[in-house]
Amino acid sequence: MKLRTWLIILIVLVIDAGILWWWQGYRLARSQDAVIRAAAEHYDVDPALVKAVVWRESRFDADARGTSGELGLMQIRAAAAGEWAEAAGISDFHHAHLLNATSNTLCGTWYLHKLINRYQHTDDPVAYALADYNAGRSNVLKWNNDAAETNSVAFIENIDFPTTKEYVKAVKAKFEEYQGQLE
């Protein structure tokens, strides 16, 4: 065969692979929508926010495991899982139960709701809640001084962990992108 024919075949294969890669990502990104909607409705959290957290934490992989013991879609640690199980009245709860997408999303959404409520005195409780979700309350208390106590722009600027600052910005951007997609 001529070089031109091989080049055309190669281009077609690359395009096909690109379409397949896109389609798999598209399906995966929507694979947890029903679970996300149910948890968001149960705990009165915007489903687009829950989906944005799931995207950032696990890229929609229900079997995801973090390096510090986090599990599942929303990468929940044992302490947060225990708080949720107690609040939800679930007995005989084990952290491994969070590899179930429904349990994980309910737990993570409950925790996110709790954090959002913690920062209601601010102009954007979501920014503070996301920083807390990622880096913990003690760090949020370090970053929310002066204007940053209630002003989310100043607060995000005060975040001195580059990974947490990027986390907050990335999740907020995905939150905006997902708005209206889960209704």
Write a concise synopsis of the structure shown.
The protein has helices at residues 3-30, 33-43, 47-58, 78-87, 101-118, 125-135, 137-143, 152-158, 162-178. The chain is mostly helical and 183 residues long.
Please characterize this protein's 3D structure.
The protein has two domains: 1-30; 33-178, Orthogonal Bundle (Lysozyme). The chain contains nine helices and no strands. Helices cover 66% and strands 0% of the residues. The model has no long low-confidence stretch (mean pLDDT 90). The protein has helices spanning 3-30, 33-43, 47-58, 78-87, 101-118, 125-135, 137-143, 152-158, 162-178. The protein has 183 residues and is mainly alpha-helical. It is globular, with a radius of gyration of 20 Å. The termini are far apart.
What would the keywords be for this entry?
Lysozyme; 9 helices
Task: List strands and helices in order, with pairings.
Elements lengths: L2 H28 L2 H11 L3 H12 L19 H10 L13 H18 L6 H11 L1 H7 L8 H7 L3 H17 L5
Q: So how many helices?
A: 9
Overall 3D geometry? globular
- CATH top level of the largest domain is Mainly Alpha
Distance N terminus to C terminus? 53 Å
- SS content category: mainly alpha
Low-pLDDT residue spans: none
